[in-house]
Design goal:
This protein is mainly β. The protein has helices at 8-31, 228-231, 286-289; strands spanning 33-38, 48-53, 64-69, 74-78, 84-88, 95-100, 107-112, 116-121, 131-134, 141-146, 152-157, 166-170, 181-182, 186-188, 196-201, 208-213, 217-222, 232-237, 242-248, 254-259, 264-268, 279-283, 299-306, 311-317, 323-329, 332-339, 347-353, 358-363, 368-373. The chain has 3 helices and 29 strands. It has a 5-stranded mixed beta sheet, with no helix packed on it. A 4-stranded antiparallel beta sheet has the order 1-29-28-27. A hairpin with a 5-residue loop joins strand 10 and strand 11.
Amino acid sequence: MGCCDKDPGFLASLGTAFEMAAVEKVEEQLASLRIAKRSAPSEEPAYLLDIDLSRPAQSENSRFVAVSCSNKSIRVYNRETLHFLREYSSHPGILSGVRFARACDNAVFSACSDGTVKCWDVRSATQKPVQVFSGYPSNVFISFDINCSDLIICAGTEKVEQDTFLVFWDARGITDCASSAKEPLGVYSESHNDDITKICFHPVEPNLVVSGSTDGLVNVFDINKDNEDDALISTCNSDSSVSFIGWSGRDYKQVYCLTHDEGFCWWDTAQLDTEEPITLLRVLDVRDSVCAENQSLHYMVGGLYHEKAEKLFLIGGTSTGNIHLISCGTDGLSLVGTLGGGHSATVRSFCWNLADESLLTGGEDAQLLLWKPRVVERSLTKKASLKIASSVQKRVRVRNSSLKSRKK
């Protein structure tokens, strides 16, 4: 057999071997994560509920970290040192996340239960947002995202009376620091019948967005379509209240979700037009499926897709602050490693940075931690336990039937 006439079976097995080696290397890197930096204790401790990194401009490293807190504030830190830079605290309601723009790394967005999405310039200490995106009367936003081209913002509402909405805005103009309030482009109102807990735009396709709800449904939309019925590409049922959603797989053709009762569902939308089943894996309770050595798994936080290894991982933890990294395969879940010695209470948020294989985590101990592979924390003095009482207020649903304006 000539050198160019290799057996196809041999080539396939060789490719599989390389893929397995790449996955093993990434799993080793994840398991080797150690604390590189800790943020200094805040004067007003609060739960750290969501984290996002500014996108790097060209070859530069990301400069900022934004964190939404249970005390209704957004805190901004230096990405490398975790030094505190500033705080935006003029929010009248509960925050539901933070997201940086892709093309403008100083623009960060936040959604609020007062029915607005605001854009802040992290270079400025002023408490006034540079842009306000206003919802309709009675909107209570509990989820949001901005698409990869920075053109469209979408926010999800709590159910009010019988109404639940995905609200859309044109986000253009944020880099011009326009100060006027923007009205919605329209809404989707028929695809969910309960609180929309999560929204996630596709990483590279600006017209695709997935939403998750306490009604158990995970819906994928193509917002380029003329109406909501045509826009709804697929509906996947998790049979439980959705707590986290994301995209995964080569070309991000897969979607997955975690549920509030710690379940996991994983679907392949590339199979929609075939006879093959779209469900890749369904786990009723991840805590029962993954056995951690000498320690239990209490809750799930979210997931991350590692592009280089083309592998999906889940993140969970314990009430004492240990973080479990879990590998996902169609044959099941397996524990990759446990990160300990960092948090002293439940971990509530994380952000993965593929550029340097680092992980940011935030918790109920009010600590923001930066983890990197095989590093040694310079300050060996571990901070005292900062577990604090929750300042998260119980949401009060607004009862107002005046919301009639909608667009399919």
